[in-house]
Amino acid sequence: MKKDRIICGLDVGTTKTCMMIARTHLDGGLELISTGYADSAGLHKGVVIDLDAAAASIRKAADEAELKSEVSVDWVIVGAAGDHFQSFNSRGAIDIGGNRHEVTEEARTQVIAAAQSVPISPDREVVHVLPQEFFLDDRGGIKNPVGLFGSQLDVNIHVVTCQIALNQNLINAVNRAQMRVKKVVAQPLASAEAVLTRDEKELGTAIIDIGGGTTDIAVFLGDAVHFTKVLPVGGTHFTRDLAIGLQTTIEDSERIKKDAGTVLTERILAEDSVLVPGMGTRAARNVSRRVICSILRDRAVEILELVADQLRKALVSQNLIAGVVITGGGSMLDGMVELSEEILGMPVRQGLPLGIRGLPPELSHPVYSTAVGLALFGAEEAVVRKKKWGRAGGTPWLLNRILSLAGN
Ligand SMILES: Nc1ncnc2c1ncn2[C@@H]1O[C@H](COP(=O)(O)OP(=O)(O)OP(=O)(O)O)[C@@H](O)[C@H]1O
Ligand SMILES: [Mg+2]
Fold first, then answer.
1. Which of 8, 49, 117, 406 is most buried, most CB within 10 Å of its CB?
2. 136: domain range?
3. Is the pLDDT of residue 397 over 60?
4. Residue 2 has what pLDDT?
5. Residue 390 pLDDT more than 70?
6. Ligand 1 pocket by C-beta < 6 Å: which residues?
7. 184 belongs to a structural domain
Protein backbone atom coordinates (compact mmCIF):
# COMPACT_ATOMS: atom_id res chain seq x y z
CA MET A 1 0.00 0.00 0.00
CA LYS A 2 1.42 3.44 -0.93
CA LYS A 3 2.39 5.14 2.32
CA ASP A 4 1.83 8.66 1.14
CA ARG A 5 -1.88 7.94 0.85
CA ILE A 6 -2.31 6.72 4.43
CA ILE A 7 -3.86 9.07 6.98
CA CYS A 8 -4.07 8.36 10.72
CA GLY A 9 -6.38 10.19 13.08
CA LEU A 10 -5.79 9.73 16.81
CA ASP A 11 -8.46 10.86 19.25
CA VAL A 12 -7.03 10.86 22.77
CA GLY A 13 -10.27 11.40 24.67
CA THR A 14 -10.70 11.54 28.44
CA THR A 15 -12.48 8.17 28.47
CA LYS A 16 -11.42 6.42 25.24
CA THR A 17 -8.53 6.52 22.80
CA CYS A 18 -9.34 5.79 19.20
CA MET A 19 -7.08 5.41 16.17
CA MET A 20 -8.47 5.52 12.65
CA ILE A 21 -6.31 4.51 9.70
CA ALA A 22 -7.66 5.68 6.36
CA ARG A 23 -6.54 5.87 2.75
CA THR A 24 -7.02 8.82 0.41
CA HIS A 25 -8.34 8.08 -3.07
CA LEU A 26 -7.40 9.88 -6.24
CA ASP A 27 -10.95 11.27 -6.46
CA GLY A 28 -10.33 13.08 -3.14
CA GLY A 29 -12.41 10.61 -1.09
CA LEU A 30 -11.25 9.02 2.14
CA GLU A 31 -11.74 5.34 2.96
CA LEU A 32 -11.45 3.79 6.41
CA ILE A 33 -9.03 0.86 6.55
CA SER A 34 -9.03 0.00 10.21
CA THR A 35 -9.64 1.26 13.73
CA GLY A 36 -8.20 0.63 17.17
CA TYR A 37 -9.79 1.35 20.51
CA ALA A 38 -8.58 1.48 24.09
CA ASP A 39 -10.01 2.80 27.34
CA SER A 40 -8.04 5.97 28.08
CA ALA A 41 -5.78 6.23 31.10
CA GLY A 42 -3.73 9.14 32.37
CA LEU A 43 -6.14 11.86 31.20
CA HIS A 44 -8.22 14.32 33.20
CA LYS A 45 -10.67 16.79 31.64
CA GLY A 46 -9.04 16.35 28.25
CA VAL A 47 -5.38 16.80 29.28
CA VAL A 48 -2.57 14.31 29.90
CA ILE A 49 -1.75 13.97 33.60
CA ASP A 50 0.17 10.65 33.47
CA LEU A 51 2.51 10.28 30.51
CA ASP A 52 3.15 6.52 30.76
CA ALA A 53 -0.51 5.63 31.27
CA ALA A 54 -1.62 7.85 28.36
CA ALA A 55 1.14 6.45 26.11
CA ALA A 56 0.10 2.88 26.98
CA SER A 57 -3.54 3.47 25.96
CA ILE A 58 -2.43 5.24 22.78
CA ARG A 59 -0.12 2.32 21.93
CA LYS A 60 -2.92 -0.18 22.61
CA ALA A 61 -5.31 1.59 20.22
CA ALA A 62 -2.53 1.91 17.61
CA ASP A 63 -1.53 -1.77 17.95
CA GLU A 64 -5.10 -2.88 17.28
CA ALA A 65 -5.46 -0.62 14.23
CA GLU A 66 -2.03 -1.63 12.88
CA LEU A 67 -2.65 -5.32 13.37
CA LYS A 68 -5.98 -5.23 11.53
CA SER A 69 -4.59 -3.22 8.60
CA GLU A 70 -0.96 -4.41 8.47
CA VAL A 71 0.01 -0.73 8.23
CA SER A 72 2.64 0.59 10.63
CA VAL A 73 1.68 4.08 11.71
CA ASP A 74 4.43 6.70 11.65
CA TRP A 75 2.55 9.98 11.82
CA VAL A 76 -0.76 10.91 13.36
CA ILE A 77 -3.13 13.84 13.32
CA VAL A 78 -3.96 14.13 17.00
CA GLY A 79 -6.94 15.85 18.60
CA ALA A 80 -6.36 18.01 21.66
CA ALA A 81 -8.74 19.53 24.17
CA GLY A 82 -8.81 20.84 27.73
CA ASP A 83 -9.95 24.23 28.99
CA HIS A 84 -6.47 25.67 28.30
CA PHE A 85 -7.65 26.07 24.69
CA GLN A 86 -8.64 29.68 24.02
CA SER A 87 -9.70 31.55 20.91
CA PHE A 88 -10.17 35.06 19.59
CA ASN A 89 -11.12 36.85 16.38
CA SER A 90 -8.84 39.43 14.83
CA ARG A 91 -8.56 41.65 11.74
CA GLY A 92 -5.57 42.67 9.66
CA ALA A 93 -5.00 44.90 6.63
CA ILE A 94 -2.22 45.49 4.08
CA ASP A 95 -1.73 47.87 1.22
CA ILE A 96 -1.18 45.93 -1.98
CA GLY A 97 -0.19 48.93 -4.12
CA GLY A 98 -1.39 52.45 -4.82
CA ASN A 99 -2.63 51.61 -8.30
CA ARG A 100 -4.79 48.57 -8.63
CA HIS A 101 -2.76 45.40 -8.11
CA GLU A 102 -3.45 41.69 -8.31
CA VAL A 103 -3.55 39.87 -4.96
CA THR A 104 -0.78 37.27 -4.88
CA GLU A 105 -0.44 34.19 -2.68
CA GLU A 106 2.24 36.15 -0.82
CA ALA A 107 -0.13 39.08 -0.13
CA ARG A 108 -2.69 36.59 1.19
CA THR A 109 -0.08 35.16 3.58
CA GLN A 110 1.03 38.69 4.61
CA VAL A 111 -2.45 39.92 5.47
CA ILE A 112 -3.13 36.81 7.57
CA ALA A 113 0.18 37.42 9.38
CA ALA A 114 -0.85 41.06 9.94
CA ALA A 115 -4.15 39.94 11.49
CA GLN A 116 -2.24 37.51 13.68
CA SER A 117 0.11 40.12 15.11
CA VAL A 118 -1.73 40.20 18.42
CA PRO A 119 0.54 39.54 21.43
CA ILE A 120 -0.18 36.23 23.14
CA SER A 121 1.21 35.19 26.50
CA PRO A 122 4.64 33.48 26.27
CA ASP A 123 3.31 30.24 27.76
CA ARG A 124 0.83 29.86 24.87
CA GLU A 125 1.12 28.86 21.23
CA VAL A 126 -1.08 29.21 18.18
CA VAL A 127 -2.77 25.98 17.06
CA HIS A 128 -5.04 27.27 14.28
CA VAL A 129 -5.25 30.45 12.22
CA LEU A 130 -8.49 30.26 10.27
CA PRO A 131 -9.38 32.98 7.74
CA GLN A 132 -13.08 33.90 7.91
CA GLU A 133 -13.53 36.51 5.22
CA PHE A 134 -11.32 38.70 3.03
CA PHE A 135 -12.14 42.28 1.98
CA LEU A 136 -10.77 44.08 -1.06
CA ASP A 137 -11.18 47.84 -0.76
CA ASP A 138 -13.87 47.19 1.88
CA ARG A 139 -15.82 44.80 -0.36
CA GLY A 140 -16.31 41.66 1.79
CA GLY A 141 -17.60 38.12 1.32
CA ILE A 142 -14.37 36.97 -0.35
CA LYS A 143 -13.15 33.48 0.54
CA ASN A 144 -9.99 33.51 -1.58
CA PRO A 145 -8.67 36.88 -2.80
CA VAL A 146 -5.75 35.49 -4.87
CA GLY A 147 -5.95 36.72 -8.47
CA LEU A 148 -8.43 39.52 -7.71
CA PHE A 149 -7.51 43.19 -8.18
CA GLY A 150 -7.63 45.96 -5.57
CA SER A 151 -5.53 48.30 -3.46
CA GLN A 152 -6.21 47.33 0.15
CA LEU A 153 -6.61 43.79 1.42
CA ASP A 154 -8.23 43.08 4.80
CA VAL A 155 -8.98 39.79 6.50
CA ASN A 156 -10.92 38.59 9.53
CA ILE A 157 -9.42 35.51 11.19
CA HIS A 158 -10.17 33.14 14.04
CA VAL A 159 -7.15 32.12 16.14
CA VAL A 160 -7.02 29.14 18.49
CA THR A 161 -4.25 29.00 21.09
CA CYS A 162 -3.28 26.56 23.82
CA GLN A 163 -0.79 26.22 26.64
CA ILE A 164 2.55 25.07 25.25
CA ALA A 165 3.33 22.74 28.17
CA LEU A 166 -0.02 20.91 28.09
CA ASN A 167 0.18 20.52 24.31
CA GLN A 168 3.72 19.18 24.61
CA ASN A 169 2.58 16.61 27.19
CA LEU A 170 0.14 15.21 24.61
CA ILE A 171 2.81 15.17 21.89
CA ASN A 172 5.22 13.44 24.26
CA ALA A 173 2.62 10.79 25.08
CA VAL A 174 2.22 10.08 21.34
CA ASN A 175 6.03 10.00 20.87
CA ARG A 176 6.34 7.64 23.81
CA ALA A 177 3.81 5.41 22.02
CA GLN A 178 6.34 5.31 19.13
CA MET A 179 4.57 7.68 16.75
CA ARG A 180 5.11 11.24 15.66
CA VAL A 181 2.60 14.07 15.51
CA LYS A 182 2.02 15.64 12.11
CA LYS A 183 -0.58 18.11 13.33
CA VAL A 184 -2.49 18.95 16.49
CA VAL A 185 -6.13 19.79 15.86
CA ALA A 186 -8.49 21.31 18.43
CA GLN A 187 -11.10 18.61 19.09
CA PRO A 188 -14.16 20.85 18.53
CA LEU A 189 -12.94 21.58 14.99
CA ALA A 190 -12.26 17.90 14.31
CA SER A 191 -15.76 16.88 15.42
CA ALA A 192 -17.25 19.67 13.28
CA GLU A 193 -15.36 18.40 10.24
CA ALA A 194 -17.01 14.99 10.57
CA VAL A 195 -20.49 15.99 11.64
CA LEU A 196 -21.57 19.29 10.08
CA THR A 197 -22.87 19.65 6.56
CA ARG A 198 -21.63 22.41 4.26
CA ASP A 199 -25.06 24.08 4.46
CA GLU A 200 -25.01 24.13 8.25
CA LYS A 201 -21.55 25.74 8.26
CA GLU A 202 -22.70 28.29 5.71
CA LEU A 203 -26.03 29.18 7.35
CA GLY A 204 -24.67 29.28 10.89
CA THR A 205 -24.55 26.46 13.40
CA ALA A 206 -22.93 25.50 16.70
CA ILE A 207 -21.57 22.02 17.27
CA ILE A 208 -21.41 20.83 20.86
CA ASP A 209 -19.34 17.71 21.53
CA ILE A 210 -20.25 16.43 24.98
CA GLY A 211 -17.40 14.04 25.70
CA GLY A 212 -16.28 12.26 28.86
CA GLY A 213 -14.27 15.07 30.45
CA THR A 214 -14.97 18.10 28.28
CA THR A 215 -17.76 19.79 26.36
CA ASP A 216 -16.35 21.33 23.20
CA ILE A 217 -18.08 24.13 21.28
CA ALA A 218 -17.39 25.39 17.76
CA VAL A 219 -19.50 27.98 15.95
CA PHE A 220 -19.60 28.31 12.15
CA LEU A 221 -21.03 31.28 10.26
CA GLY A 222 -20.67 31.85 6.51
CA ASP A 223 -18.62 28.62 6.20
CA ALA A 224 -15.99 29.92 8.65
CA VAL A 225 -15.15 29.32 12.30
CA HIS A 226 -16.20 32.22 14.55
CA PHE A 227 -15.91 30.77 18.02
CA THR A 228 -14.33 27.80 19.78
CA LYS A 229 -14.37 26.87 23.45
CA VAL A 230 -13.60 23.84 25.60
CA LEU A 231 -15.51 23.54 28.89
CA PRO A 232 -14.04 21.19 31.54
CA VAL A 233 -17.26 19.19 32.10
CA GLY A 234 -18.60 16.08 30.40
CA GLY A 235 -20.14 12.63 30.75
CA THR A 236 -17.94 11.52 33.65
CA HIS A 237 -19.53 14.28 35.76
CA PHE A 238 -22.98 12.74 35.23
CA THR A 239 -21.61 9.36 36.34
CA ARG A 240 -19.87 10.84 39.40
CA ASP A 241 -23.03 12.69 40.42
CA LEU A 242 -24.92 9.40 40.33
CA ALA A 243 -22.20 7.56 42.29
CA ILE A 244 -22.36 10.22 45.01
CA GLY A 245 -26.15 10.57 45.00
CA LEU A 246 -26.84 6.82 44.98
CA GLN A 247 -23.79 5.79 47.04
CA THR A 248 -22.78 3.19 44.52
CA THR A 249 -19.67 2.50 42.43
CA ILE A 250 -18.58 4.44 39.34
CA GLU A 251 -18.98 1.25 37.30
CA ASP A 252 -22.58 0.70 38.43
CA SER A 253 -23.39 4.40 38.01
CA GLU A 254 -22.07 4.33 34.44
CA ARG A 255 -24.25 1.30 33.65
CA ILE A 256 -27.36 2.79 35.29
CA LYS A 257 -26.80 6.08 33.42
CA LYS A 258 -26.65 4.32 30.05
CA ASP A 259 -29.39 1.72 30.67
CA ALA A 260 -31.96 3.66 32.70
CA GLY A 261 -30.92 7.28 32.36
CA THR A 262 -32.94 10.05 30.76
CA VAL A 263 -33.05 13.79 31.26
CA LEU A 264 -36.78 13.88 30.43
CA THR A 265 -37.85 13.21 34.01
CA GLU A 266 -41.46 14.28 33.38
CA ARG A 267 -41.95 11.24 31.14
CA ILE A 268 -40.98 8.74 33.87
CA LEU A 269 -43.81 6.86 35.57
CA ALA A 270 -44.01 7.50 39.32
CA GLU A 271 -43.71 3.77 40.08
CA ASP A 272 -40.57 3.17 37.93
CA SER A 273 -37.58 2.06 39.99
CA VAL A 274 -34.02 0.85 39.39
CA LEU A 275 -32.11 -1.75 41.40
CA VAL A 276 -28.98 0.01 42.66
CA PRO A 277 -26.18 -2.29 43.91
CA GLY A 278 -24.81 -1.33 47.32
CA MET A 279 -21.17 -0.48 47.85
CA GLY A 280 -19.01 -3.12 49.52
CA THR A 281 -21.18 -5.38 51.68
CA ARG A 282 -24.24 -3.12 51.58
CA ALA A 283 -27.37 -4.67 50.10
CA ALA A 284 -28.81 -3.57 46.75
CA ARG A 285 -31.95 -1.41 46.94
CA ASN A 286 -34.65 -0.12 44.64
CA VAL A 287 -34.44 3.60 43.96
CA SER A 288 -37.07 5.70 42.20
CA ARG A 289 -36.05 6.20 38.57
CA ARG A 290 -37.33 9.78 38.78
CA VAL A 291 -34.87 10.47 41.62
CA ILE A 292 -31.99 8.95 39.64
CA CYS A 293 -32.83 10.85 36.48
CA SER A 294 -33.34 14.17 38.23
CA ILE A 295 -29.64 13.93 39.24
CA LEU A 296 -28.74 13.48 35.55
CA ARG A 297 -31.11 16.25 34.48
CA ASP A 298 -29.62 18.73 36.97
CA ARG A 299 -26.13 18.14 35.54
CA ALA A 300 -27.38 18.32 31.94
CA VAL A 301 -29.15 21.64 32.65
CA GLU A 302 -25.97 23.01 34.24
CA ILE A 303 -23.80 22.06 31.23
CA LEU A 304 -26.31 23.33 28.68
CA GLU A 305 -26.66 26.62 30.54
CA LEU A 306 -22.88 27.00 30.45
CA VAL A 307 -23.06 26.40 26.69
CA ALA A 308 -25.90 28.94 26.29
CA ASP A 309 -23.83 31.45 28.25
CA GLN A 310 -20.85 30.93 25.93
CA LEU A 311 -23.02 31.36 22.82
CA ARG A 312 -24.46 34.57 24.31
CA LYS A 313 -20.95 35.87 25.09
CA ALA A 314 -19.84 35.05 21.54
CA LEU A 315 -22.81 37.14 20.32
CA VAL A 316 -23.79 34.45 17.86
CA SER A 317 -27.02 32.93 19.23
CA GLN A 318 -29.25 35.00 16.93
CA ASN A 319 -27.16 34.04 13.87
CA LEU A 320 -27.40 30.27 14.24
CA ILE A 321 -29.95 29.80 11.47
CA ALA A 322 -29.17 26.07 11.20
CA GLY A 323 -29.41 25.62 14.98
CA VAL A 324 -27.22 23.32 17.04
CA VAL A 325 -25.73 19.87 16.51
CA ILE A 326 -24.81 17.78 19.54
CA THR A 327 -22.37 14.89 19.35
CA GLY A 328 -19.90 12.99 21.56
CA GLY A 329 -20.84 10.18 23.98
CA GLY A 330 -22.68 12.58 26.30
CA SER A 331 -25.17 13.35 23.53
CA MET A 332 -26.32 9.70 23.77
CA LEU A 333 -27.98 10.26 27.12
CA ASP A 334 -31.70 9.89 26.45
CA GLY A 335 -33.51 13.20 25.98
CA MET A 336 -30.42 15.38 25.45
CA VAL A 337 -31.67 16.63 22.06
CA GLU A 338 -35.02 17.72 23.53
CA LEU A 339 -33.48 19.30 26.64
CA SER A 340 -30.90 21.14 24.52
CA GLU A 341 -33.71 22.56 22.35
CA GLU A 342 -35.50 23.76 25.48
CA ILE A 343 -32.44 25.41 27.07
CA LEU A 344 -30.71 26.76 23.97
CA GLY A 345 -34.01 27.86 22.39
CA MET A 346 -33.24 26.60 18.90
CA PRO A 347 -33.51 23.43 16.78
CA VAL A 348 -31.05 20.71 17.78
CA ARG A 349 -30.08 17.47 16.05
CA GLN A 350 -27.71 14.70 17.04
CA GLY A 351 -24.60 14.50 14.83
CA LEU A 352 -23.02 11.28 13.63
CA PRO A 353 -19.68 11.15 11.79
CA LEU A 354 -19.91 11.42 7.99
CA GLY A 355 -17.54 11.95 5.09
CA ILE A 356 -15.52 8.74 5.22
CA ARG A 357 -16.21 5.60 3.17
CA GLY A 358 -16.32 2.18 4.77
CA LEU A 359 -17.39 3.31 8.24
CA PRO A 360 -19.15 0.24 9.72
CA PRO A 361 -22.54 0.86 11.40
CA GLU A 362 -21.09 0.29 14.89
CA LEU A 363 -18.65 3.19 14.35
CA SER A 364 -21.34 5.49 12.97
CA HIS A 365 -21.76 6.72 16.53
CA PRO A 366 -21.26 10.14 18.20
CA VAL A 367 -18.24 8.96 20.24
CA TYR A 368 -16.28 8.56 16.96
CA SER A 369 -17.00 12.06 15.57
CA THR A 370 -13.62 13.46 16.64
CA ALA A 371 -11.58 10.50 15.33
CA VAL A 372 -13.29 10.62 11.92
CA GLY A 373 -12.84 14.40 11.83
CA LEU A 374 -9.12 14.04 12.52
CA ALA A 375 -8.73 11.64 9.58
CA LEU A 376 -10.64 14.14 7.40
CA PHE A 377 -8.33 16.94 8.57
CA GLY A 378 -5.36 14.75 7.63
CA ALA A 379 -6.76 14.15 4.16
CA GLU A 380 -7.33 17.89 3.66
CA GLU A 381 -3.79 18.63 4.83
CA ALA A 382 -2.39 16.03 2.41
CA VAL A 383 -4.17 17.75 -0.49
CA VAL A 384 -2.74 21.16 0.51
CA ARG A 385 0.76 19.68 0.91
CA LYS A 386 0.55 17.93 -2.44
CA LYS A 387 -0.42 21.20 -4.10
CA LYS A 388 2.52 22.97 -2.40
CA TRP A 389 5.24 20.36 -2.81
CA GLY A 390 4.05 18.26 -5.70
CA ARG A 391 3.61 15.11 -3.60
CA ALA A 392 2.77 14.12 -0.04
CA GLY A 393 5.95 13.72 2.01
CA GLY A 394 6.85 11.08 4.56
CA THR A 395 9.72 9.88 6.64
CA PRO A 396 10.81 6.30 6.01
CA TRP A 397 9.35 4.01 8.65
CA LEU A 398 12.66 2.94 10.21
CA LEU A 399 14.04 6.48 10.44
CA ASN A 400 10.77 7.67 11.95
CA ARG A 401 10.88 4.98 14.62
CA ILE A 402 14.56 5.74 15.39
CA LEU A 403 13.73 9.46 15.73
CA SER A 404 10.80 8.64 18.01
CA LEU A 405 12.90 6.37 20.18
CA ALA A 406 15.57 9.06 20.36
CA GLY A 407 12.85 11.35 21.70
CA ASN A 408 12.91 13.73 18.74
N1 LIG B 1 -25.79 5.81 25.93
C2 LIG B 1 -25.17 6.69 26.70
N3 LIG B 1 -25.86 7.39 27.62
C4 LIG B 1 -25.26 8.30 28.41
N5 LIG B 1 -23.95 8.59 28.36
C6 LIG B 1 -23.21 7.92 27.46
C7 LIG B 1 -23.77 6.96 26.57
N8 LIG B 1 -22.77 6.46 25.79
C9 LIG B 1 -21.64 7.10 26.17
N10 LIG B 1 -21.90 7.97 27.17
C11 LIG B 1 -20.94 8.82 27.89
O12 LIG B 1 -20.11 9.50 26.97
C13 LIG B 1 -18.85 9.76 27.58
C14 LIG B 1 -17.75 9.41 26.60
O15 LIG B 1 -17.92 10.15 25.44
P16 LIG B 1 -16.74 10.35 24.40
O17 LIG B 1 -16.20 9.02 23.99
O18 LIG B 1 -17.25 11.24 23.35
O19 LIG B 1 -15.68 11.09 25.34
P20 LIG B 1 -14.10 11.23 25.18
O21 LIG B 1 -13.80 11.57 23.77
O22 LIG B 1 -13.42 10.05 25.77
O23 LIG B 1 -13.80 12.47 26.16
P24 LIG B 1 -13.42 14.02 25.87
O25 LIG B 1 -13.77 14.31 24.46
O26 LIG B 1 -14.25 14.78 26.84
O27 LIG B 1 -11.98 14.13 26.19
C28 LIG B 1 -18.77 8.92 28.84
O29 LIG B 1 -18.90 9.74 29.98
C30 LIG B 1 -19.98 7.98 28.71
O31 LIG B 1 -20.54 7.66 29.95
MG1 LIG C 1 -13.91 13.38 22.72
1. 8
2. 86-161
3. no
4. 60
5. no
6. 13-16, 40, 46, 81, 187, 211-214, 234-236, 239, 254, 257-258, 261, 328-330, 332-333, 367
7. no
